[in-house]
Amino acid sequence: MSRMRYRMRNMRWLAALAAVLFPVTVFAEWGLNLPPPSSSVAARILDLHNAIMLVCLVIFIVVFGVMFYSLYAHRKSRGHEAHQFSHNSKLEVVWTVIPFLILVGMAIPSTATLLYMEDTTESELTVKITGYQWKWHYEYLEHDIGFFSNLSTPRAQIENREPKGEHYLLEVDNAVILPANRKIRFLLTSNDVIHAWWIPKFGVKKDAIPGYINEFWTNVDSPGTYRGQCAELCGKDHGFMPIVAEVLSPEEFDAWVESQQPKQVAAVMTDAVASTAEEPAAADSNREWSMDELMEHGKTVYFQCVACHGVEGQGVPPTFPPLTGSEITTGPLDAHIDIVMNGKPNTTMAPFKLQLSDADIAAVITYERNALGNSVGDLVQPSEIAARR
Amino acid sequence: MSAAHTDAHDHHHDHRPSGIMRWLTTTNHKDIGTMYLIFSLTMFFVGGIMALAIRAELFQPGLQVVNPELFNSLTTMHALIMIFGAIMPGFVGFANWLIPMMIGAPDMALPRMNNWSFWILPFAFAMLLGSLFTVGGGPASGWTLYAPLSVQGGAGVDMTILSIHMMGISSVLGAINIVVTIMNMRAPGMDLMKMPLFVWTWLITAFLLIAAMPVLAGAVTMLLTDRHFGTAFFDPAGGGDPVLFQHIFWFFGHPEVYILILPAFGIVSQIVPTFSRKPLFGYDSMVFATAGIAFLSFIVWAHHMFTVGMPLAGELFFMYATMLIAVPTGVKVFNWVATMWRGSITFETPMLFALAVVFLFTIGGLSGLMLAIVPADFQYHDTYFVVAHFHYVLFAGSIMSMMGAAYYWLPKWTGRMYSERLGKTHFWLTTIFFNVTFFPQHFLGLAGMPRRIPDYALEFTEFNVISSIGAFGLGLAQLLFVYIIIQAVRGKNKKATAQVWEGADGLEWTVESPPPYHTFATPPTVK
Amino acid sequence: MTQAAANRKSNTRWIVTLSAAVVLMFGFGYALVPLYDLFCEVTGIGGKPTIAKLQSESPDVAIDTTKQVAIEFTATANNNMPWTIMPLVKKTSVHPGEIHVVNYLVTNTAKTEMVGQAIPSIAPMQAGRHLVKLECFCFDNQVLAAGEARQMPVRFYVDSKLPDEIKTLTLSYSFFETKPSGKEGAG
User: Fold this and answer.
1) Cβ contact (<8 Å) for A349 and C78?
2) Coil, helix or strand for C170?
3) Which residues are within 8 A (CB) of B408 and not within 5 positions of it... i.e. 6 or more apart?
4) pLDDT single digits (tens) B198-230
5) pLDDT score, position A13
6) Most buried in the list A155, A297, B229, B264, measured by CB within 10 Å?
7) Is-contact C133 C156, C-beta < 8 A?
8) ipTM of the complex
9) Which of A126, A271, A320 sits opposite C86 (nearest CB)?
10) Which of residues 312-351 of B touch C (CB under 8 A)?
11) What does CATH list as the number for C69-177?
């Protein structure tokens, strides 16, 4: 197995070498070119990319063919005498006009592709994407469905304490569900700083800008899982906010939409409800939880806080305060519940009542007060959180 | 005659202080040029060490060496230091040494201002580096400092803004000095269209600096007042707009790109004719091409912003304008090749570097052309393809041209030849490791690896490993460069003649090597 | 000496000219701010989230029943602002020239009074100029008491010059907290 992988690695080396020598032909096979397209937009971009690449290569070979011939043939060591010419108007006009014509030739298909990409009309589904530091929120405008999508790679893999999984850093808790073979229009905005939504195989990349609504579209040609990443530097965890799209057949997609409906109607009147948080919510809120249960569940929920407040609760001062020994986590319980539920405006501390269930909030607060170097000893029941909604 | 001339320009040089005071108070263009070059080389290593920290982190997936906050600070600082600390002062250093000698002037026109513009720099960079040690760390929003991300940072961002102001003042003063020198100090008979191309490219660069740097100063000032003084230039809630920052920034940023490359074109245009033993082909078209590139640089800024979401007409305009830059740039490359054509070529180290610049810069230029194509840019934007592109332009273009220039003029400055064998070794190590480092990054970008991430998915591992190995090789090879320079400066090598190179042509080759402290006290006559 | 004096004089002229250019370009950086606003206004890039202003009292043309445009409504609370904003109509279809009113239900879920400013943005951006707001909660700051919920109306029409190829447009609001508050760390 490992020898196999070793050989694979060797072959990649070879492929890289081959690509330098015979570019376009080997590109698509070895991840040396843009990934195989999964939408008509991406397909057109790939064609355009290959065409420009070819033109550039030809120009490159011709120009440097001449240069290297000259370096070889007109060496002093070969006894070549210098010819003292320094002008040739005809030649200079030619090599100004020809590149210009080549550029016009490149501009025409580029313009056509751009016009095609900008045409968002006649879409069959609108999905609104909102970038957050550091997660995505998806909302299906026609269907009243909305949820957050967080990185699901365990911290232990990132910190090299566990072997890395196959989709390391490219996996999320809730993928955005999309139908194949339908024109999907995306609306894109941001909650805080600028992000960019990008799935290479879809051939789309657009910035999510606070205050702006951007739009773009795609049309995925077959069901499957597609992965991408945030492409615009958005702070500390820019490298840890992947994008995963689960593309279903149109029928499966309709069934999925159907299955989401009742749940969402029951949800609070908000455009930001995490779907995971909803399922066991009601039952969990009513029963009495033990300290151990809360602590155990809290540890899992705390995963969502790690990005800013640190695995050990150490934080990243001054932007992200520590939780160990802080006034909030060791002070009055009320204030602690309040900040977790309602957030702190103008900071990355979100109002988590919009994202987490009662049990999640109760557990994470209990965990924060009795772990991370704190030992206040008190606990919060999910029912208390429910009462404060 | 000569006494009168000296009196007018640098009378206090004749009793120059010794030791540290000589360097603190000097107004001699050669001393200041030397200080700029040493400063540039120092910053090249400081920025290089940051690059190696980045490459060490990216050697394997997972977080090993630095945490994400420090990683973002490192990428930000690496860019700021290399652009404002290594490349720009490096070119100013060459300008200081060479422009007076090339146009037959005794010194720069404004020697005292020259001293100030240099001595601002160490303070500016001390402040920038100091920001790393503030609570909250250094600037971490990328060297582009995009709002609103840059509004979030701590005191480190304010220190960065102030240091950018200082760097800006330094380079604007330097630029004014260069323009005045070139316009007023030319020896009799040195018409504008007889000036060496290095002088021409610097004249145009100086105008770009004067036009672009104040705009950057404006942009970061707005950022500063948004952060602390309640303005809302980039805050939508107060009627501002985050995209506006990008427009203002890139209105500076694109001319800045040519500030970083035009002097490199000048250097190549000096070196290639010398070692081809032929005059430069198409001198006039070279000058016009340079001016054309400079003009176009002011109307293409939004090609850095295609994914922001512009109206279609805007995208088309910026795409066409950007593609047009390929025409004058092509003319330059063709002229260099035509200069070599039917010459009598030899391959000393400076020539090797100049050839590598032409070859590798063209790769960067062609990937730049690809980036101009809007639909394709949607795939390339903010990926390692862009990282590869601008390192081909800035490292292979700007930095390697300066290395070539150092070898070319070092014998003139020190009076001693450098070791040709070591020089060639340095060249090959640099060229090979540069390509090992940056060529795979094209593939990483196409495969979908975003830039500015401290950790990556497993499919990107192989190329990152290769790239990191190349980076360490590239870094180590530069120690050899320092050794070669020190060897030449210490004067153990073979003595250099005044002409130094068989095919060298120009006023700086008419004075002895090393040149006297004051050259051309009597203006030479140019035929 | 005269040569040197002439040189010095001409140096001064260059220094003055170039310094003026520097000051001018610094000013130009600032001039880009209003120029950008003007550019957005002229080209009708409604995407720019400036505070929309009342444009005219009533439609300039008769209702054009031959054309139909779908309009979607959405909203975002920015910077984790604890407000929920929900359009009571998600999607509607209008004829150009026809005046419509759509209400947003805005709730302040915080424990304190808050001031919000809505910033409109329209996709596709070419449509920005053609969606005319006669009355909008985005014209002013909105003050909501702790826990208060309020319906906020926007009265608008689509003008007849809307390009034919635009068949769907989206009106989006982002709410920002306006009271300038400290930028200290997250809690």
Assistant:
1) no
2) strand
3) B267, B270, B271, B274, B350, B501
4) 999 999 999 999 999 999 999 999 999 999 998
5) 53
6) B264
7) yes
8) 0.90
9) A271
10) 312-313
11) 2.60.370.10
